[in-house]
């Protein structure tokens, strides 16, 4: 079975990437004939497979539709999520809807083979049908699953249908940074298929999994082969073509493969051994898979001064890391190409980091392969449960944790499991930390990253029982680095810090925002970042064992990356930032090939001043007016942004394109702007183009800014809430929601409990589903008392 996606003859003409604010250099390489064609599972690889990526039919229906639609809406490029530009669709899936996929595939069946259908990941709940019969179902948006479809397929053409439910942050399942109303540190959802789909032919008795655990102290690889009982297995290791050892034994038992002349794996020397595993019956080869492993050890030990530190291969090793979200402007959760996927790790390594904290996301297997191959330590976050912990959330979270560990356990790059982050859905921390430690004793467990959270030196998140049963104590401190607390037996790490916001014109997803914990102009970033890293050196001498900077790439509204979201501009040159990092990372090894343009450190307001002068001199072309208005927003010149925006709006007419509506949303800064009336009149179209409630959120923000905030300039003000309510009535539900929210928060902060209670109850009853989880918990806590 060849590694070829099924592509209809009309596929190339019918697919078109949707518009997007910025895109990566790899997006133009994507087409229906080459959508991620690489074998998706490098640690359990066979030759006899068929890639099902490519164009599929899709439909979005009401949840009440239970049977396969008779008519589909169009075509979608798999495996790019529905909301992404690269899918060719770019639509938001709402909780009351279902997403359907359909395609044909050919397969030739024999009595001596089984046919397996594999999914890298589908977000969130999936039912799979083959030729009208249910093959199975899976719940969880981040882990792989497979079905044996041998008895459902026939030789020749077959029909595959998927039904997908993905409520994003409105459901009970882990959703990571995906929300239906993206803003600040939360981003656009990725619904449906977002990793490779493929078919594999295997013998009737076959190897279904491997468990590989290196033991460098005894120069052995512990290996367990998951296969039918009664079979023999043989595993052979080699390094660069030279035999390194072998072992033969019984399937499903732990075998010890002796490794000769061991070369240890580390970021500076990522030595990977090739591994061939055969399944034998009466000395005849029944099945064979290819894999690989690395010989490395991670532990907490005391250094020569008695300080607990992270040790790699029995030596202290400072984990100099960065917080990687794994989002792409064109593919969202899915990298455009395998080259793009590897670029992120090469770029991070090229900046002189040796560690990536993979933040609230599980990547495709090939991402971890590149981390293994290039040499990068990985702290792997569990995807946090729904923060409000609705009924059922704990069970699906724990199931996903179990699947995540089982799926990733063989990667040498992964050294640390991170259970919780900043109290997001935190519960049963002791039990779950100990469960992970028992499940995988070969790695460190960070039971809670940021259980203590400081912003501008103020503690936001105290904890009476911090870091129970974990290997690390972990503090988050924004913007400047801070030491974690000292607890005997645990190493200290700084799980997040930094977040310096720097916007680069023409390389932004959202020109209304340059969000960061602090903001700097491009020319000032190097000095600020250098000082932060000098403080890391001081903290390292006091026993700090690792640090995670936020973050390597801009992501949507967050512009605090060291590279822009499109990966085109590096804000501190690679050679310069490597030099900054060198004192804490002497084990850089050979630097990978990676390219990005250096940032222009000219003050961006100078460029804006030039545009403003052209405007004064009479330039009024539509393209110029758009650019000037967006740049004026960034420069803080609201008056000029309004003038340019008004003139641009006068040149465009309804019905507005999606691109026009996104622009209106970006540059409208006041209820008096023409754009505000366009938003009010086009809410449904805006939400369809940009995501659920985007128009409502924009309207509420502008109403608060112009009609509420001026009445409460300080906490001891006494606003006329009746007058405010009357002024907001013309704006319907959006006006009522922002009124109730503003009054609730005002009375809460003023500690006026008598007046707070009825307003808060009304707010939660009508609009509580849209409240931020931390805000809702705070309100409910007061009501409960």
UniProtKB/TrEMBL annotation:
Domain of life per record: Bacteria
Segments forming domain Glycoside hydrolase family 2 immunoglobulin-like beta-sandwich: 206-296
Short name of one Pfam family: Glyco_hydro_2_C
UniProt keyword terms in alphabetical order: Glycosidase, Hydrolase
Domain (Glycosyl hydrolases family 2 sugar binding) ranges: 57-169
GO MF assignments: hydrolase activity, hydrolyzing O-glycosyl compounds
Chain segments annotated as coiled-coil in the UniProt record: none
GO biological process: carbohydrate metabolic process
UniProt entry tagged with the keyword Cytoplasm: no
Glycoside hydrolase family 2 catalytic domain segment(s): 339-450
InterPro entries reported for this sequence: Beta-gal/glucu_dom_sf (IPR036156), Galactose-bd-like_sf (IPR008979), GH (IPR017853), GH2_Domain-Containing (IPR051913), Glyco_hydro_2_cat (IPR006103), Glyco_hydro_2_N (IPR006104), Ig-like_fold (IPR013783), Ig-like_GH2 (IPR006102)
Family classification: Belongs to the glycosyl hydrolase 2 family.
Full protein name: Glycoside hydrolase family 2
Naturally occurring in which organism (per UniProt): Chitinophaga silvatica
